[in-house]
Design a protein that fits this description.
The protein is of the alpha+beta class. The protein has helices spanning about 35-40, 70-75, 80-90, 100-110, 135-145, 150-160, 210-220, 260-265, 275-285, 290-305, 355-365, 370-380, 385-390, 395-410, and strands spanning about 5-15, 15-25, 30-35, 115-120, 170-175, 180-185, 195-200, 230-235, 240-245, 250, 250-255, 255-260, 315-320, 325. The chain has three domains: about 5-120, no CATH class; about 135-245, no CATH class; about 250-410, Phosphatidylinositol 3-kinase Catalytic Subunit, Chain A, Domain 5 (Orthogonal Bundle). A five-stranded antiparallel beta sheet has the order 6-5-7-9-8. The chain has a four-stranded antiparallel beta sheet with strand order 3-2-1-4. A hairpin with a 4-residue loop joins strand 5 and strand 6 (about 180-185). Helix 3 crosses helix 6, helix 7 packs across helix 13 (about 385-390) and helix 13 (about 385-390) packs antiparallel against helix 14. It is globular, with a radius of gyration of 21 Å.
Length: about 400
């Protein structure tokens, strides 16, 4: 497999394909980008904060994304997807030390998250519409995590989820929410929609899927926009969380940009604050309602102890007219961190944020409905015990989370 030194970027946006520009790797391992002149006339600014929207050849001043601009780095997987990608390269006689970011983007090709596509592509999906066996997929993902997987397993799993990000194993599938049928068909099936199906990581609690589904129900009731989700059961009684992809709709692909990529924030060593997210959301949506969307998620994460609130867990979507909006919330669940800090700080506080920090942010951004937001979230999370019981969360997990929530909302 010869190293790739130049790739062309396209935008397949709701059925309309545009030539965006090209990425070139020089002899010093620096990656340069130039917009296509015709694309600039369309006014579809794919990364409006860091990447200059002009016809000049440029490269990022930061190297946190392997010399890529954040908008292109967003196409690359991390966590589970990165493991699969690395194993795929190794299985196909490629030394990891020789792999460049352009090799990785070429492997993503047309099958990444969002609407960006990369050519020449070096991987072609050949899926079928066979029914997916959840227990089989669970066993295959565990074999990868335990480093005992076969080459065929790697190829199969990469085809089903090689572009996905996040630490937990997952596959990209079609799912019919009405008849509960899941398939791995590339063409799609009548009544099915593109979804992400999650499997437990090695350090997850046994009821992690139930917990995430319970958080989804609480989030919806708290007024947070989220993609339709469900809890699936396998023939052996295991349960899994599935959620509809928000980067796809009936007309095709939507352009997706994470907060990390948009603001060039190293999400592993983040300096992001919810104030930064509120500002970015307003600049993209051009509406004060964007402030409320972020503030609502911020308070929900505070009182439910979601400390894995890093900058890759917030995204924005752009449609074919160039209109931006905050993407539905995702990866909401109970999570701690190694040092007890929120990944995203609250008006400068990440260890022990309180409602006072929420109100301070509301004051800075002139959010007048902050008390209503707080009351709605509190009303939702106060139903935790009931929701947990009805979604199969274990008594131990329910008690642990309920205790935290009860303590957290007293700060008001």
């Amino acid at each position: 497999m010869k190293a790739i030194s130049k790739i062309w970027v396209k935008l397949n946006l709701q059925g309309q394909i545009h030539n965006v520009g090209n990425l070139v790797l020089d002899s010093d391992s620096k990656i340069y980008f130039k917009y296509d002149d015709d694309f600039l006339e369309k006014g579809l600014n794919i990364s409006p904060i860091v990447l200059d929207y002009n016809g000049k050849i440029s490269k990022p001043n930061w190297h946190i994304f392997e010399s890529l601009y954040g908008v292109f780095a967003d196409s690359l997987p991390d966590g589970w997807g990165r493991i699969l990608m690395d194993r795929y390269f190794q299985n196909h006689q490629k030394q990891l030390s020789d792999i460049t970011p352009l090799d990785r983007l070429s492997l993503i090709g047309r099958y990444g998250m969002g609407a960006l596509e990369y050519f020449p592509e070096s991987f072609e999906q050949t899926g079928t519409s066979d029914i997916v066996d959840l227990d089989f997929l669970l066993a295959e993902t565990q074999s990868v995590l335990n480093d005992v997987s076969s080459e065929d397993s790697i190829d199969y799993l990469y085809q089903m989820g090689g572009s996905s990000a996040g630490a937990r194993p997952k596959v990209l599938i079609d799912f019919n929410f009405d008849n509960q049928i899941i398939t791995n068909g590339i063409e799609g099936n009548i009544g099915s929609v593109p979804c992400i199906l999650k499997f437990p990581a090695s350090n997850d609690l046994p009821d992690i899927a139930n917990m995430e589904y319970a958080y989804y129900l609480m989030g919806i009731e708290a007024g947070i926009e989220m993609s339709r989700s469900a809890l699936l059961s396998s023939s052996k009684g295991r349960q899994f969380f599935i959620t509809q992809r928000f980067d796809r709709n009936d007309s095709g692909k939507l352009h997706m940009h994470s907060a990390a990529g948009l603001l060039h924030d190293n999400f592993r060593y983040s300096t992001m604050d919810y104030g930064h997210l509120m500002d970015a959301a307003f600049r993209l949506e051009k509406s004060v309602s964007a402030y409320e969307k972020i503030l609502r998620i911020a308070y929900f994460n505070l009182v439910t102890n979601n400390r894995d609130d890093h900058s890759k867990n917030f995204s924005f979507l752009m449609d074919r007219f160039g209109n931006w909006r905050v993407a539905p919330a995702y990866d909401l669940t109970y999570s701690t961190s190694s040092h007890g800090y929120h990944s995203t700080s609250y008006d400068g506080e990440s260890k022990n944020p309180t409602v006072a920090h929420i109100k301070s942010l509301a004051d800075i951004f002139k959010v007048e409905r902050v008390d209503k937001i707080i009351d709605q979230v509190n009303e939702s999370v106060n139903k935790w015990t009931y929701i947990a019981k009805n979604t199969g969360v274990s008594a131990a997990s329910s008690g642990m989370i309920g205790k935290y929530i009860t303590h957290a909302i007293k700060w008001k």
